[in-house]
Structure formats: C-alpha cells, structure tokens
Write a structure and sequence with these properties.
Chain lengths: 469, 469, 469
C-alpha cells in the first residue's frame, strides 16, 4: 500500500491503518525535528487559501519548511486569476504543473475534489466550505490518541456548531471509524446535517439515537444531549438500552469535550438577528467542575471567540494549544507520505476500516443538479465543465448524494434511458416514489428536478407521474 | 555578449540569438530539473505583483525555488507602502537594495521601465498594463518552436482582444522578429493599437495589409481576417499580391491559433454595456473541424473565460496547459541568465534580429506630456521625478512615442530652443504641420500641447502657427 | 549576557552595549554576505504584518533568507483568523508553536508586547500603532554611527510628524540614551506626545527646553525649533543657558536632519480638513543650502510623500536609501542574536545605558483603564484576557503609564484595599490630588476613573473626594 501521489480530500481517503502509520511517523518526526530538514528537499508545495486562515495555512507552510521544502502561496481570491473568472479546474491544472503538492482551502463545497481531479499532483483539502477538513481531524485524533493511547471505546462530546463546522463533520467520521461513542450537543438550530448522519449510520455501521423529541431523558444540565452515536463495537447493553446506559456511562466521565466556534461567516442574516450568539453554549471553569468532566480533554480547533473562556487556558485538561502545535508534525508526516519521500507501511490485518459501500453512480449532462448553493458543481464558472454526479445511496425514498459536496437530494421524477431499435423504448416519466425507481436499472436511470424539465426533454407523464403515487 | 545584470522590460530587450540561447537552456533545464536546485543558491527574487495573478507569479516563484533561490513577495497594492503614496522609483530603489532580481507586475504602462531604471538589479516585466508581457511571449515562442521546430515562415493567427492584450502586443513583436506571418482576427472594436502597428511596420520591416475597408476579400467564415502582417522574409508573390496569396496560403493551414480572453478589467463601462462579451469570437470543437485548423496549435495565455471551450481541452492540438507548464523552465533559464549564474553564449552571426532604429529623443520638463491616462509618466505620485520623454518616430506628421508606455502622440505646436547671445533667437511657435518641424534640429525642438501652453512659456504665434498650415 | 530567546518590543529592551555588539555583527555580516547563508539554517521566521508595509517586511524576510532560514507570512488582517474575531494572544500562542521567531506589525499600540507575552518564542516589534518601531531606530543609529563614528554629542534634528511617528518615538529614546542633543521641529499640531517627553526627561536624565511660549529665541528660519533635548553629558554652559548656547551650537552645524512623512492614515478627518498637509515642512535643495546643513546627514525612514524633494536624492548628504539598505544586515544581526545562532559579547563596563527606574506597578481587574483608543488593552477581542496594568510614574499629580501603549493617565479618585479582620478597613474613596495618594501603599492602591465607578464597587466619598482638594 502506498500513499504517494494520492490526495486527501475527505477523511475516508485514508484507511485506519494509514492514519495510524501517519501518527507513528508524526511521533517520530516530532522527536527529531532537526533531522527532518531535507526530507522534502527541492519539493514545492502550493498553498492556496481562498478563505481566511492563519493557523492551517501557516501550519502547512511550517511543515513544508521543516521538511526542507519550498512554498508558493496564494492567499486572497481577489489577488488571483480566479478574480478574472478562471475556473478551479484550470487553476488546478496550471498550479499542478508548477508544484509537487497542492494544499487548498476554498469556500465552495467540493472544490478540493475538483482540484484533486485536475491537478495531476497530490492535493490536500484544507477545508472546503462546510464540507470537510480532514487534516484538522488528523490533528484531533492524534491528540486524543496521544493523551488516551486509544480512541476505541472513548466517549467524545461534540459541542457547538455541528451544522456548518467542517472540522466537526470530518471528526465525526473519524471518531466513528475508530470506534468512539459520540455525544452531540449542538447550539440551537445547529444540529448535525442529515447527510452526515446518513454516512454515520449507513457507512460506519453504528446507531444514532436522538433525544430531541423524547421526554428529555438525558436532556439535563450540564449536558443537554441532542443525539448519541453508538459505535458497533459498543457493549450490547448500551446499544440496546441507550437511554439508561448513557446515564450510567456519563457518570464514568466524558473523555473529550470538543468545542467549536459559531461560524458567523456561514450564518444567514436571520440567524444572526435571532441572537444565536447569545444562546451558544460556553465552556468555562464552572462547567468543568462538573464530575462528568473531571478527566475530560478540552479540545477546540481554534480560533475561538466566546465559547471557550480564557480562564480555562491554564487548566491541564485544556488541549487546544497542543492540538494546534501538533498540527506541524502531523502535516509533516502527511506531506512526506503523499510526496513519497517517506514510505508508509501498513499491515493489512491491522487495518480495521469498514469498507466503503459501492453505491451506483448517476451522472448526466441534463436533469437533476445539486441543490446546495455552496456546492462547487453549481457555480457559474464551474458548470462549464463539471457534469452533475451523484451516488444513489437509497432507492426508497430515492436519495442521491452529490459526489462533490456530499449533500443529499430527494428527486421527484425519473425515467428510463433504455434504447430499443435506436429509439427510447418508453418516453414516459414517473414519480420517484413509484415502483419504477427500483425497476429501472441504475445505468438507465434519468432523474429530473421537475415535470417541466422532463417535458423539455420530450418525456410525457406516465400513470405513475404523480408524486407519492 | 552577457545577459547578467540586464533587465527584460520589453521583448526587444533580448536579441533573437539571446532568445534562442535561452530556449536551449530551458530545454536543458527541463530535462534535468533536480540538478538545477542550487543554481541560484543564496539569491533572492522579489516578486511584486500589483495586479491579480496566479499563473505568472507562481510560475516565477516556482522557477526561483527550483533553482534553489529564495523569494520575497508583495502581492497586493493595498498592503504595501504604495498605499501610503510612495513612488515606484523609491520602492524600486529600496527593494533593489534587498533582492538580487525583481519581477514586477503593475497596472500602469511603463511601470516596469521605471523599476528597471531605479532598482540597480535586473528587473523582469511580468506585465505593465496593456503595454507588454515579454516572458509570456518567451513561453509562447518556446512552445511554437518546440512543436514546429521553427517560427520562421509559420502562419500564426491572433484571435480576440488585440487592443488591451499585453501578451498579444509582445507576441506580435516576437513573431515578427522571428519571421512569422501574422493573421489578425480581433473582437469587435479590439483591433491592434496604432503604435503596435507602427512598430511592426517600421521596425521589423514587414508589411501590414488591412482588410476592413476592402470588399471583404478574405473576410469569410471561419476566419474573418482584419489584417495580415507579411514578414520581409516572405516569398515575393505573397508580399506583392497579398489578397490572392493569403487565400492560397490559408488553404495550406494555420500553424497556430492564439486565443485571448476579453480583458474585462480594462474595458470601459460603455464597452461592457455594448455587450462586447456576446460578440467575442469563440474557439470550440466546431471551429476546429475547419480544414484550415487541421494541424493548428491552439494556444492561450490563460486564464480563459468563455472564448475557448472546455470541450477542446483533450484535443492533441490544444497547447495551453503545456504553454503554462513550460513557463517554469523558460523562466528558470531567464532568471539564471539575468543573475549571471548561467553563462549565455550567442554567436553574433547567428543573431538575426533587425537592429533597432536610433530615433532622436525629445525630453523636457515642460510642454507635451504623454496623453495615455494609464502611462506611468502621468501618475500623480510619479510626475514628481519623471520627466516626459519621447522618441521622435516620424516628422511628417510629427509623431512622438512615449519611452514609457510606447503610445504615440501627434503634437500640434513646436518651437526652437536655439540660443543666440543669451536669448532665444526666435520666441515664435509654429504649427507642427509646417515645414519648421523638419528645419528645427531635434535637439532644439520644443513641443507644446496647445497654443495656450506655448504662450505661457513666452512664445508668440508665427505665420505658421495655424494647424495644417 | 545573552540575547537568545529575548524579545525586542521597545528600544529599551536592548542595552547600549547590546546595541553596539549588534552593530559590530551587522558590520561583519555586511562585509561577508555570502558566508551568512546557513547561519539560521532550518529556522523559521513568522512575518505577521497587519498594516501596510513593503520596506520593513521585505527587509526582515530578506534578512532571514540571507541567513538561510525560512519565512512564513501573513500580510493582511482580512485574510487571517483575526478576521474571525480571534485574539492576539491566541494567534501568538499558535504561531509561536510553529515558528522559531515572530516579527509583528499591528495597528494597535502594545500589540507586540502581547505577542511577546504569549508566543513563547522571541518576538520583534516591527511597529505597533504610534507606539514604537525599534528596529527602524537600530537602522537609524547604525547609519549615524557609520557616517559619524559616534552618536554621543551629535546634534540631531527631528523634523515633521513627531506625534504619530512611531519611528520618531523610538529614535528619540535611542538618541537620548546614546547622548545626542535632539532638536525638535514638528509640523503644526504634531508635537512630541507628553508621555514621550516624560520618558526623555525622567528616564534618560536630560533636560527638555521648550520654545513655543517664549519670545521666539531660536524660532527663526530655516529652523523654527519647538524644543530641544539636552543630554546629561552636555557641557554645563549648554545645559544652563540653552537659549544662547543653542544659537552658538547651531552655527557649528546640525549633524543629522531626520525627516518624516505625515502619517495620513493616523490623522483625524478634522486634521485633514485643516490642510495640515499644506503647512508641513519640506526639505529641498534650497533648505539644504543653509549653512547649518552644510555637513548634515539627511535621513528619512521612508516611504516619503512630499516632505523630501526628489531633487536632493543625488546629494551626497542624502542617507535615506543607505538607511533602507542597511536594514538588511542590522536585522540579520538581530535575528541571529535572538535565535541564539550567533553569540553576543557585551562587556558590562562598556554598557553605558542609564538603568531603568523601578516604578511600582498597578494592576487590577476593575477600575481605571487605559484611555488610549488605539491601545491593545482596550480592544474588544483583547479585554477578555488582558488585565489593565500601569506603572505609577508619579504620585503628584498621580500619573500612570499603561504598560502596553505607554500612554499616560491622570486618575481622579483612589482608595485603599488594605484589609483588616477580613473586611476593607476603610471603604472610602478620595481625590487623587489629596494627600492620600502618598499615604496609601502602592500595593494597596485602588484607582477609579469616576465617582460612579467607585460607588459601584461599594466605596463612599471621603472628605477628600473632591478633585483638587
């Protein structure tokens, strides 16, 4: 198994074994920093940050310099040719012909995948909108593992903005894959998105138990839980009687409390008016006195605003500055692996990652498009060359996952593209809720956003064209 | 002949022989990239980009890093001391005392010349307004030569924005000097500027044939020509009977089609309103099916917007990503030559560049100024130290070329500064159209923008002061 | 004595002997530039510029590259996590865990001290608002010393914006410490701030003679003096009869004329309207013909605007481009010392710096705050963790100096925090002008901005609560 020339766009691009090998290398590197200078001698990293960043960008650039490599960077979308209307693909192809590796942060979800598709060199996603931020997760998992030796079986609470926080999304997947139990405590209206929950429950095999509609079982101070993800490696009783068990479990303490800031820059004006900021949960000395948090690691991807009080900075449980500092050796290890200047060795049997489900793919020029306005595939400059593409993650109800931003779509109409003697056998369209959704082979499926669109393409309604039929 | 310590402000700063030597070094370097690391060990490049850029800036910085040198950069005019009202000359002097070589992009035409005049170190023009972009031309010529072995005798079509495109201006000169035939196909209202045409016809010795006013001889689809530049090395019959010959010639195919984007950032609001964008020529699969383009290299300096369809990206004739990638070895060779870390060897007999015409120079504190509002010599911060300076490129009609932006001026009034016994012999001013323009020696010439200006300086109208007299 | 791991926030962070050792190393380094490459091999400088800069930033980055080190940089506050509301302390801690040394420029006064307090690595202040710019002063002193062999006993005129010019403030301290006589010639309304004058007279032991209210003794052309700082090492007669003596002294010539630009970016709209720019003093050829300036070094920290005419650039007395160029070896020496890659040797007896006065410190969560709106301690993002802190520099009238921005406060009310049997002995507050100010021990002092604030904290007015009592 080799990491050289691969990209890291989402956490799932690395197997558990690869992540563990990466952590070993990070350990080794942080213990002998001076000896690493020269590992990437003569190599060039392009550091492209089209959203504000200090920490992540400087951490990657530091990693490259510590390895003895060079950095070229673009830090402001207004100062680049994207301001002239250039597409991400063109930029990726050109920069890929200059640099040996590309680190990209971009406000559009799925942008990093496009860069990886076109650059021809390894690409690292340093955050794409609210989608993923996999290297933050590597730093987070590395910190937990360093402090607690393992991740398996730990109880990790995620706290704050679970909706827009890309670091939270990636971390959720990472924790699930390594067998942690995850406690969700969102700010008001900032619950985990549907598509993240689906991935959790269908791909990592655990169970999600929600509390919102229930009679506040564990909805108590100081920890008003919204939901809990129970890993498949959990003891049976917890999986079967979660309400009772979690109360028992919580008494033994939370292993880590992962706090995030409110992503003001992604909030609507309405949410801002509603004073979301005021009701956002805050971690301070008082909270940390609760017995559940006695031995809890307090983590934060930084920057913080008001959700994490300065008074806990000196507390030995506070991990956030260590998390940040560990970003350097973790990114050094990652860069060295992707550039192939360090060999990775992963024993197959040691690799416990749950294999990905092989969903059928839907990809057509016309018809359904991703409805996420921040998805790269829907941007004016990118539609010139990006064909909408989805994984069919469920057929009842018909559910598509955009391959770029991973948001879900629930289309209303379908048809078949099966040909017979040079013409479409049947130019009828049906409701996606009808039995036709299962009868048409995935490779023949045509999916429409609306009846009018189906009709523009020459399809007529079948008996099964009414929604819900 | 040595390139060390010289600057590259316009294409004509390099002889043909030097350009060929540079291409040989670029070939050598791209064949042994790893060995180049260290060639510029300990050297520092200042990369100053006061206009948006990804490609050019990252390409220069990559080149320097591949040579083992270091880079300091300033990428945003708002973040520099120019924002405090500093002049370009002061900035050049200071940065020139830090770095070993300066790469400058600036929106003002002639800015790179000012930097070269004051920096005290080699300066490379990476684009100054709509004036020149000589290193883009080096990449373009290098690509043509690599694909076709020679430039001499090729038929190259320039397509799109010929008015504001600095890459086009520099390329036009380069192609003319290397003996290509150039076919011009501008967007509406985007014809080659007068001063570029003059340079073509007076300095590179060829002939320009225009078609606009004619009975549309070769104004046919798919190639509605506006003008054609016929190189002096052309066979006689083409030069003598261009209309007929070009039709014959075109049938044998165009060697390269050089497409450019519409420079929206340099267009007036009026041009934008007139929907220039809609009538701009587009290169797509359909066009490339025409027999003239069967073996045509499709080139573009990038970034593209809509003028070059993504559907031709995979076509083997498409050269634009190769052009971009070749920017690195070409710029490596250039930087190494200018820093003197690689010796250049040019045989004099091999150097076919047509020698420059030695025009008389006009330079005075008062009187005529360059009328180009984007010329560096007319900017408030620069007039404190820049004295207007022109080459007298023609005396009938009197025509001056600004030494900074190379735009032309056609002044109306003149006088003589000849002194006799301590006073001006004759304090009269004349129309520039009168015979006095030829009678006054260039070193005594005083040129005025207007009658009132002449009179402010104590001159009175002569009998020959009326325009057209 | 060692410089390694120390920070340079204000000029007084270095002793005179250390400054002289630094100048010797700068001399040595500028004489053998090529040999310095590698001195900081593998080290990383973070270059954080949250205000426009070309010169200082590029000079530091050049210095690091010439030493063979690497640079990570952030040049625009909008492109960093500060834009997300992060505090300076958090940023400092994180960047300090990446880089080996930090160079910071920031618009808030005292920001560099905060960075130094939290970073855990050496920090260099590259300008914090109108406070200090100590490395500019090092370049200035180095230039004077190189041209005149000594600073002691020289007559240096400071010219222009003495109010907002941070370079002027630092230079004033530096010159005073090295025994120069300083002549102040401010622009209208741009006199030296009170807190700078106090430091001059109380800490460097000299005497300040002001001319403004007098019958214009030396208020004559070309040198309308505002004030003169007479160094304690001056001959007695000058100190005793300054008016007469300075006229005699001036005839022997000014050694250096240090000109500064008007800091437009720090001016109020009102000052701009009042046409401050028009009445600002200008140095030109005519002025330099005066006999006082016959052998005067003309200095300027650059960038200049209109206060220094281009016509004197070629004059051998003009030092400003040399000043800028010398910034590189001076900063190389400083960086190498702070990183400990060069050892410093300072003989104690050779160190003539006047020892600092050990003022009592006042530090409380509540009560008096720094009134300077540009002080870092009063910014919304920073008050979360910065406790107001002052030096008590005088008790009559009670005068506090903010430890961050060094501005002065003259508080109106005081109380005592002396405890007796678990309660405050006396919950009365008094006028700061009363005898209580001297009676309460500094460690017990509580200082209030206003009566209402005192009363909020449960204090009642004493008989001595009226101001001026």
């Amino acid at each position: 198994m080799a990491l050289a020339n691969r990209s890291l766009v989402i956490v799932d691009d690395l197997s558990n074994g690869e992540i563990e090998a990466l952590f070993s290398l990070a350990d080794e590197m942080s213990g002998s920093m001076d000896e690493q200078f020269g590992v990437c001698h003569g190599k060039i990293m392009a550091s492209l940050f089209f959203e504000p960043s200090t920490r992540t960008r400087l951490s990657f650039e530091t990693a490259m310099h510590r390895l003895g490599g060079s950095v070229i960077s673009a830090v402001d979308v207004r100062a680049t040719s994207l301001a002239k209307g250039e597409s991400i693909a063109d930029m990726a192809r050109v920069v890929g012909s200059y640099a040996d590796i590309i680190v990209i942060r971009h406000p559009w979800e799925g942008a990093a995948k496009v860069v990886a598709d076109y650059a021809g060199v390894p690409v690292i996603n340093a955050g794409d909108g609210s989608h993923e931020h996999p290297t933050q997760t590597l730093c987070d998992l590395y910190t937990i593992r360093k402090e607690r030796q393992t991740i398996k079986g730990l109880k990790i609470a995620l706290w704050g903005d679970l909706k827009y926080g890309r670091a939270i999304h990636s971390l959720t997947y990472g924790l699930a894959r390594f067998g942690a139990t995850i406690l969700f405590r969102p700010g008001p209206g900032l619950e985990l998105p549907e598509h993240v929950i689906r991935k959790l429950t269908t791909e990592y095999g655990g169970e999600l138990k929600r509390y919102e509609a229930q009679d506040q079982p564990v909805k108590r101070e100081p920890f008003p839980l919204d939901a809990i993800y129970i890993t498949p490696s959990s003891p049976h009783q917890l999986a079967m009687m979660p309400d009772v068990s979690i109360q028992v479990e919580l008494k033994t303490g939370v292993d880590a409390l992962y706090v995030t800031r409110l992503q003001m820059e992604r909030l609507s004006a309405r949410a801002k008016r509603q004073g979301l900021k005021e009701s956002y949960p805050v971690v301070d000395k008082k909270l940390l006195k609760e017995k559940e948090f006695k031995r809890t690691l307090v983590m934060h991807p930084l920057p913080r605003i008001d959700e994490l009080a300065y008074e806990v900075d000196a507390d030995p449980r506070s991990m956030y500055f260590k998390q940040a500092a560990r970003g350097v050796p973790v990114r050094m290890a990652l860069v060295a692996f992707l550039l192939g200047t360090k060999e990775i060795s992963v024993s197959r049997e040691g690799d416990s990652f749950i294999p990905k489900i092989d969903y059928p793919v839907y990809r057509r020029d016309f018809g359904i498009r991703c409805p996420n306005p921040r998805c790269v595939s829907t941007q004016e400059t990118e539609t010139k060359y990006i064909k909408p593409e989805f994984k069919i993650v469920s057929s009842q109800p018909l559910t598509l996952r955009c391959v770029y931003c991973e948001h879900e779509v629930y289309p209303q109409y379908i048809a078949s593209s099966e040909w017979h003697d040079g013409t479409l056998e049947n130019k009828k369209y049906h409701s996606a809720a009808s039995h036709w959704t299962r009868r048409i082979k995935p490779e023949n499926l045509i999916i429409f956003d609306s009846q009018s669109e189906a009709e523009v393409h020459g399809f007529k309604p079948s008996h099964y064209a009414r929604v819900g039929h």
